[in-house]
Amino acid sequence: MQLKMNRCLTFVVFMVINVIIIGCNTNEPKPLKLSKYNRQKLLKSGEWISNKDSMSGISIRANKFVFFNKMKFSTKNVYEYEMIDSIYKFSNREDKVGQYILLRGLKDTIYYKIINKTDNSLILKINNKNQTFNLKIN
Q1: Which residues contact 47 (CB under 8 A, 6 or more apart)?
Q2: Long-range contacts of range 16-20, CB-CB < 8 Å, 24 or more positions apart?
Q3: What is the tens place of the pLDDT at every residue in 40-69?
Q4: Is the dihedral of CA 58, 60, 63, 66 positive or negative?
Q5: Which DSSP symbol is given to 63?
Q6: How far apart are CA 103 and CA 137, in angstroms?
Q7: Rounded Cα gap, residues 58 and 65, in angstroms
Q8: 70, CA 20 to 30 Å: which among 22, 60, 82, 97?
Q9: Where are the beta strands (DSSP E) in 29-108?
Q10: Which pLDDT does position 74 carry in this prediction?
Q11: Which contacts of 34-39 are long-range, i.e. CB under 8 A and separated by 24 or more positions?
């Protein structure tokens, strides 16, 4: 009788644990990760000056993007740029999880994560560090 009672109790505990484990495993399927071009224009044309070094920054003209240092830049570092949205697509919704600058040059393509962007300020993740640039107002 005691053995039968222990087996019955063990079976009930086993079933309860299985119900809890199965019930808790209702994760939504993993999202589809994709990128979409953002149609809005990225930045105002002009010089975006680095907060760390006033002689360095970014120059924007039309759809051209170039980093400069000591107020000089090389033509080999001129890129066409676009803004990219990073999207997680679920079955019933899309979540924008990040925004990037896509730079296309003759020899390479570079992405920089946009941490924050306003009309006059831009924070990019460059070499795993946040760098702030402010639009030079004439």
Answers
A1: 57, 58, 59, 60, 68, 135, 136
A2: none
A3: 767 889 999 999 999 999 999 888 999 999
A4: negative
A5: T
A6: 24
A7: 7
A8: 82
A9: 32-38, 46-50, 57-61, 64-68, 78-89, 94-104
A10: 83
A11: 34/86, 34/87, 34/89, 35/84, 35/85, 35/86, 35/87, 35/100, 36/84, 36/85, 36/87, 37/82, 37/83, 37/84, 37/85, 38/82, 38/83, 38/84, 38/85, 38/99
- Quote the pTM value: 0.71
- φ and ψ of 63, to 5 deg: -105, 25
Cα–Cα distance measured from residue 45 to residue 137, given in angstroms and rounded to the nearest whole number: 11
Q: Helix %, strand %, coil % for the chain, to 5?
A: 20, 50, 30
In angstroms and rounded to an integer, the radius of gyration of the C-alpha atoms of the chain is: 26
Rounded Cα–Cα distance for residues 36 and 45 (Å):
23
Q: Which has the higher per-residue pLDDT, 48 or 77?
A: 48
User: Quick check: helix, strand or coil at residue 98?
Assistant: strand
Token reading at 93: 């919704």
Here the tokens at position 38 are 């953002």
